[in-house]
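Researcher: Structure prediction, please.
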Amino acid sequence: MLNRRTLFAATLATGTMLALASGTALAQDSAACGKPDCTAFNRDRAAILAMAGTYRVTFNFQETAAFVPGYEPLEAKRSGGFEAVRVIEDTGRTIRLQHLLVVKDEEDKPYIVKHWRQDWTYEPETVLVYGGPDQWVVKPIEIASRNGAWSQTVWQTDDSPRYGGVGRWAYDRGETRWVSDETARPLARRDAVRKPPYDHYIGINRHALTPAGWVHEQDNAKVGSRDGKPATFVHEVVLNSYRPSTDFDIAAADSYMAKTATYWAAVRKSWEAVMAAQGGIHLVQEAENGSATGKALMELADAVKDGKTASSDAVAQARALIANATAKGPAKAGASRG
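Model: Predicted structure follows.
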């Protein structure tokens, strides 16, 4: 097992190689971080890029303490699978990591589920945050709060928004970790399908590198309305562990990305255009699909992958779907819960 010093040296090397592979040697350029000394910037980039790779993933969810009389915490839920995490964009100050879940279909053949995406931006001027039912708003970040910080914005399977937060990477006590501010987010499918008494989370995220890969930890309060006021029903801890693995069809994940890259790049730009025009995004959420656009946008990607639909035709349909689904905007500034 690698010790911490060896691990971080390997992490830094991995981050540098990934940056070069994506065509950006910007980590060594002071213009990338905008400061004479980019040592901290380079170290942060290496930590983010170290999360790319191929993994066996375990997802652990545990409700802990209840805060409403009569509410009984759920039994712990555990699941897992295999994921490829790929760098799909790296401009120096912005890094996008796409998660691809690899499962088996009914014929025991690999099937790719485009999973969540995490975007990292250095010293962001704004961040897109969850602002209430079906709504995300662009939140300005004060200069003092963004100095040396990174935002992490998480997107759903169809590249629609989920939540965003701001924090700093730290390297003390033998740890390499990033901790977010307190962020609001809509219910995940595991809760939404049960129609619980709470309707959103307020949580803190932590990403940390370990000798065995990396972990994504969450400390969530599950919040709803009680007697006309916001109330925390129960706390939840989440531990998602990523351990390096090659025991799955990695080529299938990379093939999916190669075949659908143009389509998904256009989808991302469509969401960004809505966000810029409306100051946020208004989008109805569905328990089964995450967002109202989720099922249709994912099916279009599969059609492109299978050669049944030309990428240009799928992009046109996706743009129309997104425009129609977000037509109720603009989002209301100042609506954020967290």
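Model: DSSP finds eight helices and 16 strands in the chain.
Researcher: Thanks, that helps.
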